[in-house]
Model the fold of this input.
Amino acid sequence: MSVRLNKEDITALEFTIEATGFTGKIKSTDCVAFSSADSKENEAVHTRTNEQLLETLIKKDDVGYCIHITGQMRALADPFHRRLCAELANRSNSRFIVIYNIPEQFRQSPEGVGEWNAQRWASKTWVQKLSAMNLIGDALVDVRAYNTVQEIEYSVFGNRYIQLQEKHFDEDESPSPKPKRVWLLNSEKLNGFLTEKAINIINNADDIPEALYKRFFAKVSGVSSQNIMAKLIKEGAIHIEKLLDERLLEFDPDAASNLDILKSIGFIKLSEQNRVSITEDGKQFIGF
Done:
């Protein structure tokens, strides 16, 4: 079943496809779903894409390459999509490969990947952020780092489906980019072209060890972090030097890194006077 596009939307689609380097033609009947530059419509197309992926995975079992070329990897904050990624990994020998833009200085540590992703996912809840981190940490997706700022964002799956997003401009690096047109297309030729293009990007991308995300999740959930937040609830705002006292550092010499991680996920905040306090999200996390 296809959707009808008006002349302006067809022109935008042709321009976007041309920007990928594809020189073939796309018929109007190749468009399975479409969203104008509207947040709710965007969400509806993402849901339709997930439904198509589910049907392809479960009913047809012919997923082909499953690849996201994206800027901020926000799809992993969607619980439906996370379940599909986990199902794909459990049902087949393949995983979704996610290529996204994370600067080199953030790729080397749990604190780095946590800080960058938490900033990019500022509009998401702490549950969504931690769930996405845990999905990656459990090696249910394969995450790669690449400068995607100039790339058209798209996803390929099922050897024929493509979710294609209109080109970002100045909002590329914004945690809350503006809505844009999104198309779900059914085209073997375009899928093949974009899959080959994605594989070339993968070959030039840096692999990010899943262990970094696992360690981030473990440090947020660990005993040191729990003790820090419990102490902040009991005593209120505490100067950072008093919080990182001899007793805590004897138990966990790396406790200072926990502060960075808790701050990045939004569970604590640091004042200009270096006083640490727990946030409402932090209280929710430890069940207070």
